[in-house]
Amino acid sequence: MAWLYLVVASFGEIFGVLCINWFLLKKTPGRLLLLVLSFGGGFYFLSLAMQSIPMGTAYAIWTGLGAAGAVLIGILFFNEPAGWKRLLFLACIIGGAAGLKLFS
After folding, report:
1. What predicted TM-score, i.e. pTM, was given to this entire model?
2. Which of the listed residues 1, 4, 12, 93 has the most CB atoms within 10 Å of its CB?
3. How crowded is the C-beta side of 5, counted as CA atoms within 13 Å?
4. Domain range enclosing 95
5. Total tally of structural domains belonging to the chain
6. Who contacts 69 (Cβ-Cβ below 8 Å, separation ≥6)?
């Protein structure tokens, strides 16, 4: 269950980063609340995951998946560049997170 919590926490971070971008485009109280709730939920589920998963592993996977997800959101929805070098290093982040899962 802890690994599921960690994945949910990563989605909280990804959505939180997306909410930052939305908030910067139009600063409304609703968007700010969504931003706070997204990151708050991510931290909550990260704390649940860390009850069973070592801190270093949980944090590395959480930030890695969050960063990879944020890059993909930027490419898909905000017209950020998707060159092969960028995608190669994105694959490295995902591979590192998978490696931590496999060897922890």
Report:
1. 0.83
2. 12
3. 15
4. 2-102
5. 1
6. 10, 11, 13, 14, 17
Question: Tens-of-pLDDT digits for all 104 residues of the chain?
Answer: 999 999 999 999 999 999 999 999 999 999 999 999 999 999 999 999 999 999 988 988 898 889 889 999 999 988 999 899 989 998 888 888 788 778 86
Tokens of 61: 């996977």
Question: How many other C-beta atoms can be found within 10 angstroms of the C-beta atom of residue 71?
Answer: 19
Nearest to 6 by CA among 35, 40, 49: 49
Q: How crowded is residue 67: how many other Cβ atoms within 10 Å of its Cβ?
A: 18
In a 10 Å sphere around its CB, with 0-12 CB exposed, 13-18 middle and 19+ buried, how is residue 15 labelled? buried
Chain CA centroid to CA 81, Å: 19
